[in-house]
Amino acid sequence: MKNKERRPGKPFPGAKAKGNGSDRPGSAKPASAKGRDDRSSRPPRRDADAPKSRPQPQAVDTAAEPSRPLTVRSGERPAERVPLILESTGAGDFHLIDSGEGLKLEQYGPYRIVRPEAQALWPKALPTHVWDKADAVFTGDTDEDGMGRWRFPREALGETWPLSLLGVDFHGRFTAFRHVGVFPEQIAHWSWMKEKIEAADRPLKVLNLFGYTGVASLVAAAAGAEVTHVDASKKAIGWARENQSLSRLDKAPIRWICEDAMKFILREERRGNRYDIILTDPPKFGRGPNGEVWQLFDHLPLMLDICRELLAPKAVGLVLTAYSIRASFYSIHELMRETMRGKGGLVESGELVIREAGLDGKTPGRALSTSLFSRWVPK
Ligand SMILES: C[S@@+](CC[C@H](N)C(=O)[O-])C[C@H]1O[C@@H](n2cnc3c(N)ncnc32)[C@H](O)[C@@H]1O
């Protein structure tokens, strides 16, 4: 994860253990997750023409759920484009005003919000009196839950407020883990996805894994896609459904599925269901609704392997985001290229960054890195 300073607090939806230094919902470390992982000794399955001498990766089980071996892939690795820095300068109701001294000042609709940002090593660009006028400041008080971890210097604010991005309406939300119900750096992926869906000559099928409050699912549905949204947290699915109503997309074809992401994709693979776009934004650690353990470094290879199998013949993309400080973008880039061997196309990987835009939202400043990504596209 990019930010290590988060203090323990109330676990987010999907995370039953206490926080330990990851900064995203569903990212907290179990006491002995490793011990619970039951690595199967079944042999890996092979592409028909896979060379026999390739090392055989191990299968991964999540909480002793049905699993399968990793496929040994053959064929050329896809072409590559690195590094690709996807920059958001804000959209709709969001922009990054300023950052520095371990903090960031963001505009979310009517509110200016101050939150910790370990990446911001530089000095603040705007004067103190601007920062002091913030509407909400994340304090991170460890003896408080939920809203108590926020301070509202101007007037008491409610837990939610209306926001709009890329044409969809949803709730901003002051959560106990300093998140606000949306990860705006994802705008870069969502704009890309929206364009692809709108340009397609058929309704594209989109699978959104670890979908949280559903903003990506709503952007996809509003653009005309049939969407399957998967998240382990009932609470997050509830928020996503609220957002669906706010966006007046109640009749849009969205399946809301509260399930462990790995279990779900394993079943989809067996059923033969296929998708044109898959978004996967896994936390470093998470839990499924029945305690299934998700560990990024253990489970990502199998997750990508299955996602590849879930791609429709005319798929438009597979997009992975990772918020792990232990990895470089090359880790997920090379994993993606190995997974997509023989599939042609292009793998482009790099970072998602947000550019400061000043008080007016129009004055470009410094780039704030948020996460790593890797994206396979057919060409
Ligand atoms: C990092 S957020 C995803 C953010 C979202 N993609 C966005 O940009 O708005 C992580 C989400 O993963 C969910 N999660 C954690 N473990 C999970 C699991 N095993 N299966 C499915 N979802 C899980 C959490 O409930 C949380 O909503």
TrEMBL record:
What is the protein's name according to its record?
23S rRNA (Cytosine1962-C5)-methyltransferase
Can you tell me which residues the record assigns to a coiled coil? Answer: none
GO MF assignments:
methyltransferase activity
Instruction: Please list the residue ranges that the record marks as compositionally biased, kind Basic and acidic residues.
Output: 34-52
Manganese recorded as keyword: no
> What EC numbers are recorded for this enzyme?
2.1.1.191
Q: Please list the residue ranges annotated as the S-adenosylmethionine-dependent methyltransferase domain.
A: 159-289
Positions of the UniProt region annotated as Disordered: 1-82
* Organism placement in taxonomy: Bacteria, Pseudomonadati, Pseudomonadota, Alphaproteobacteria, Hyphomicrobiales
SUPFAM superfamilies per the UniProt record, alphabetical = S-adenosyl-L-methionine-dependent methyltransferases
What species is given as this protein's source?
Answer: Rhizobium rosettiformans
**Family annotation (PANTHER family):** SAM-DEPENDENT METHYLTRANSFERASE
- Which BP terms from GO are recorded? methylation
**One Pfam entry name:** Methyltrans_SAM
Keywords assigned by UniProt, alphabetized: Methyltransferase, S-adenosyl-L-methionine, Transferase
Group of enzyme by EC = transferase
